[in-house]
Amino acid sequence: MKINDELLNYLETLTRLSLSPEEREKVTNDLSRILEYMELVKKADINASEAELPHGAETNELRTDEPEPPYDRNLLLKNAAGKDSEFFKAPQIIE
Amino acid sequence: MELKELTALELGRRIRVKEISCKEALDAAYSVCKEEEKLNAFSLLSRDYAYSCADKVQKKILEGEIASPLAGVPMGIKANISTKNIITSCGSKMLENYSPVFDATSVARLKENGCVIMGKCNMDEFAMGSSTETSFHGICRNPWNETCVPGGSSGGCAAAVGSGQTYYALGSDTGGSIRQPASFCNVTGVKPTYGAVSRYGLIAYGSSLDQIGPMARDIMDCTEILSIISGYDRKDPTSRKMEMGFSRISEKAETEMLKGMKIGLPKEYFSAGLDPEVKEIILRGAKKCEELGAYVEEFEFMTPEMMDCTIGAYYIIACAEASSNLGRFDGIRYGFSAKEEDLARQYTESRSKGFGLEVKRRLMLGSFVLSAGFYDAYYNKAQLIRSRLTKLWNSALDNYSFILSPVAPHSAYPIGENTDDPVAMMLGDVYTVAVNMAGLPAVSLPAGFTRDNMPVGMQLIGKAFDEPRLFRAAHSFQMATDFHRKMPDKSLGGGNKQCMKQ
Fold it and tell me: Which of B155, B263, B438, B446 is within CB 3.0–4.6 Å of B393 for a Cys-Cys bond?
């Protein structure tokens, strides 16, 4: 399958990425080759009746719903680029 | 024997009987790190922390407060496993300055047993790679030939253990990322059953595939490490309440362990595409198992069509999960931040500047296969292939105690050889990815060397949660061979693979 500009723009939106012109060329070529290889998956003769949960998924081990002491706020803010004494700071969302 | 040639348990014993102190062991290890700096196996050395830790563990050993066989032994941790107050970068600019406020459960359990963390091991960025060439901290090199890759993504762990810089390491394996670098660097590596080890604190790549596992000189070390880190964790609902019943592997020869075992060799794994030298080494390994009393036979495992679509199915699932998992990196709560005024630009610029190209490519592939119009043809299909593969594996393991196979189609290749060809890089994972998809345990054992003196590992795959029996079989093999004790002697070469792409 060929990756065109429209599809690449769409994938940039989905992934919240913006590729440089050099990256666009490389990624376009690479993804086209990878998807050509992935044709083997599309062509596999296998249908929905074979569907089974992955190993381990049938027995999620849930813990009891008990509250635990929260993390110290300062620790949670420690790695943030923008913060004040209480909150993470982010660009304005609401006008 | 030099200190660096000891196994972790051997060093642990010397520390316990006071032949050597924790500090002396650490001094010696850091000295080897200095000699082997060029390999770039560690992305960060945590000296202050390590010496402080060695001091505390030494006191506890002297006061009888800690009796673990691994107490005081220096070790390394892959850079995607959270260590409290030690930078955990995942080999990425995105997390270059990220310092976790908690330990991964597996790290916490090792700390209770007196581990001494020397530093964080280099890795492919966010575990996306098979050669440790995509790290933000620079490429890692193979200790057996510095012009070759160590494998990946736990290449730093393998290079550090393989060169004697550290005695064991914790890696992670999503599609072969412990086993393949173990094979390339002459190290023993284990990918446990999915659910055997808590993933809490492992920065996720493919959540239904990832497992943390040990890398060390031999399977006895790996057994001890796994007995400490495995077991249910209430912070990880995918960890299982399964008592695997590890008992110490006897130090006496357990060559009896393979007697009567039936080992299957998948016919399709030994056909075109496998390097003839690697094939010869693996078949010699199989022959050794026969000499030790196992019954070894070739069997038809899967159709050529299934063989062909295994890798594609794996990459579809792994990249789809990654595209979701790496959505958390937005430059707000942690990680690289572009500090834009507009929210959408904040996300886009932080991610575009923070991630490397390989990560971007995989995120785009992952988003593509999950997107409207393509979801059924790719992602759903890949999951159906996964269901069938799982049945094939379980059916094979109903007939055989273990499956024996190569780990990779070749030994370590020159740095730069595959960086321009993403499909060639993917094809190198042909023998490892299906094991993750089925959630089974597997070990990579040093099995021999090519004529270029490059290591080759042999893979043994067992039933889910059958690690104790799998490890006893591996121990039998290692009691009868000495490949795992060999260390690089650069004077012997590996000299034919000199080329390195500019």
Answer: B438
Q: How far apart are CA B323 and CA B22, in angstroms?
A: 43
**A20: number of Cβ within 10 Å:** 11
The ipTM, to two decimals, is: 0.94
Which residue in the set A71, A75, A91 is minimally distant from B340, CB to CB? Answer: A91
Task: Give the residue ranges of chain B where pLDDT is below 50.
Answer: 495-502
Cα B307 to chain center, whole Å?
23
Q: Is B130 a catalytic residue?
A: no
From the centroid of its chain, how far is CA B465?
A: 18
DSSP state string for B87-129: ---TTSGGGTT---SS--HHHHHHHHTT-EEEEEE--SGGG--
B:193-212 residues touching chain A, CB 8 A cutoff? 194-195, 208
Strands B295-299 and B116-121, how do they pair?
unpaired
Q: Are B312 and B382 in contact (CB under 8 A)?
A: yes
Cβ distance of B377 and A18 shorter than 8 Å: no
What is the DSSP track for B119-181? Answer: EEE--SGGG--SSS-S-TT----BTTBTTB---SSSHHHHHHHHTTS-SEEEEEESSSTTHHH
Top-confidence residue, A1 or B418: B418
Query: Cβ contact (<8 Å) for A19 and B343?
Result: no
Collapsed DSSP state (helix, strand, coil) of residue B449 = strand
Known active-site residue B177:
yes
What is the DSSP-derived secondary structure letter of residue B242? -
Distance from CA of B71 to the nearest CA of A (A): 29
Tell me: pLDDT of A61 over 90: no
Provide the pLDDT for residue B496: 37
Check B240 against A56: CB less than 8 A apart.
Answer: yes
Residue B201, phi then psi, degrees to nearest 5: 95, -10
pLDDT at residue A47, rounded to an integer:
83
**CA-based torsion, B420, B423, B429, B431: positive or negative:** negative
> How far apart, in whole angstroms, are the C-alpha atoms of residue B416 and residue B397?
38
Beta carbons of B323 and A15 less than 8 Å apart: yes
* Per-residue pLDDT, A2: 79
Give the residue from A4, A8, A9, A16 with the most B CB atoms within 10 Å of its CB, the best one to mutate. Answer: A16
Instruction: Please tell me if residue B375 touches chain A, with a CB cutoff of 8 Å.
Output: no
Task: Say how many C-beta atoms besides its own lie within 10 A of residue A91's C-beta.
Answer: 16
Q: Is B387 a catalytic residue?
A: no
Over residues B21-63, the pLDDT tens digits come to: 999 999 999 999 999 999 999 999 999 999 999 999 999 999 9
- Which of the residues B82, B235, B364 would you substitute to probe the A interface, choosing the one with the greatest number of A C-beta atoms within 10 Å? B364
B355 in A contact zone (CB under 8 Å): yes
